[in-house]
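sanity check this fold:
=====
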Amino acid sequence: MALHKYVVSALMLCIMISCASSRKTGYGTSRFVFEHEGKTYAIISYTPEDRMGHNLLISTDEKQSSLKARDLNQDGTLDTVIAGPLSLKEAKGIYRAGLMKAAQAGNLINRETRRQYQTEDAAYRYAITTYMPLIGDAYNVFEIADKRIFTMTVIAKDMLSDGSLETIEQGSADLKKLQTRYETILKKGVDEKRIQKQEESYFVKIQ
């Protein structure tokens, strides 16, 4: 299954883009300004033709503290706060609100991407997939497929992407044993630099 990249559309904001500069550098740049809790912010999308783009969340009101935060791969979640007094969690809330408003205004482009880590051992195939919906928290889905019994697949959900499985969505298994195996596969993914641990959360990196 696929996730989406979130890129602010230039269709209604083309006045703010230098066409000559875009052709020369291979960059497309667009900006969406929005209000959140009485303050003004902007999301700026940088979209190169030949490599992955990124989004910036900035404060635009001179009366408020400066804020700059970056979504490194346009996946809908901020990765780091570059400047300003807000925590990453607080900045993420503002960014999500801005993306929702951009979507409502028709200024959001969805580009499909995939966050899935796959590995296997002698008996089983494993997959961890990270989903980052526009509304709600990110979550992970853990799948185990028995190589010997092709119809035997167990699917469980880590609803807060915090490394703890809460529910089994498909198949039958002991949740405690499944949790132990999930932790093993998470660690393997982190060691292989395919899964990122950010604060107390685990996110599969985009392929």
